[in-house]
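the two lines:
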Amino acid sequence: MSDYKAKEGVCFFVYNNHELDYVDLVMLASRYVKEYLDLPVCVITDQGSYDWLTQSQTQQDIDNHIDYIKITNDEFKPNMRRHYDSPYTEFRAQFSNSNKHKIWEYSPFEKTLLLDTDYIVKNKLLLRSFEYEGVAMFDNAMSITNLKPHQNETLLYDQGIKMWWSTVVYFDRSDFSKMFFDLWAHVADNYQFYQFLYNFPGKLFRTDYCVSIAVHILGGMEESNIIHNFDDEPMYFVSQHDDLIDANNIQDWICLGNNREETWKDIVVKHSNLDLHVMNKRALLRVKPKIMEHFNDR
Amino acid sequence: MTDNIISERGYVIIAVNPIEYRQAQCCAYSIKSKMPEASVTLVVGDEQKVQKKFLDGFDAITELPFVSATTRRQNDWQLYWASPYEYTIAIDCSTLVKTDQSSIWEYLIDHHDIVFPNSITNIRKAEIYPTYNKYFKTEYNLDIIYSSVFFFKKNETTLKHFKMADVYFQYWKDVCGKYLRPEHMPDYFDPDIMHTLVAEHTYGEVLTIHNILSYIDMQNSVNTRLNKTSKWTDKFTVWPSNAGKIKIQNYAINDILYYHNDEFLTQEIFNEQRKHYDTITK
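prediction for all of em together
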């Protein structure tokens, strides 16, 4: 226990690329963590992103939002990901995620909640995870229009194994958690082999797939409940084809839910009081100034 | 008709040609690997046609007591008379038993006369619903039962099911034509549909449906998921390993596996099952 800087806390990985300012995103995400979870925040980043953090944000904001900064020097393999900003804009950017399993080593907390920078905490649901033993992740998700995700984000491949989301990973320092992260590292190191074994398509390295395989192996290669799933709560998400267009206040966000079959149609959705995984990061960055204004105006 | 009861309880497996003898033998290996004390009987059309090499793994071989159909499952109705057991679990030959069923036996004997499963699953143990399941319920108000594994005792109650099946199975086209609309007529003899109709027409009181005998149905997994008829063995990877272990899509199979398609039963898989059986029993 004494080896850790705090008993409980939240971590973010922040590696900027030429298209997306994850530094800006983490300032918003950590603001929400402070608001609803009231926990210390650790940002794990590289030197370049850290430099940008200190240039682009005021020291006061950094001090208010971030408690610990860990600078890493991991090498990232090329991992180009296709992003969308609504159905009409598409871009590609490096996705630096291959060291995510090292959170076991990097986290300064005894009990850690690892969040993606596009996961916005808007209630206290995740606090319950600190009562869990072992590891917790979401194993089901729901769009803002209450639809299930595409099949390749429910199962790895048709009759393949269930997908667990690495967007939110809770873990304690138990032997089981250590084993989980060791296995995650092993799968990541041998990704092509496991892709062959588990028969899933695509060239993108996905940590969701790594954790799903690790869970499957740890469960004796059967469906199991060895990992907590936040009590069956779904993870709500704004897909990359959806849009976030306004924020009435820090809670009420106005989104456009895109129709998957008829992509020229959208439905307006007001979303509040539920955590939200905003996969359309550019949309989040567009609305971020207004949200921060709402925080400052209170 | 079998007059000699060789054991209180046991498994019977119908097979009527060499491909099915081999499948049945592998099924027997799998049963005995999990339950070495289990008694398993091969039920065939003509005992003389069965090569000796297929008898390893079985405790007995018996003939269908009446004229046998070339479609093996069309002979299910004869099992009441063919089985050399008081309590019987009948298993389709293209099945492997990868679980110890000892406690299931105790439960079934204590509580039921005849039991068919009312659910089947995929390799993830998620329940699946074959296409015909939907219209059976909505259009005929019938609850489908599955028949690759079923349990029965020999008594007056269960006899009703087999007597009705005698007629229904032999004249299955006429029966289906009477009760099903033309668009729902199966192309081939379908044991699940026929057992369902028999169960329904023996006024429901004979049969118990229960998910205790639920099994993994590979063929229906594919049809359900892909909404078309295709071989599941073309879609899924199968990994046999030592101690008779089988993984499909890297799912460990620790249940009853109705594989249906003979292409699954490669020589490698067959040999592993036999080897494991030898290790356990000899």
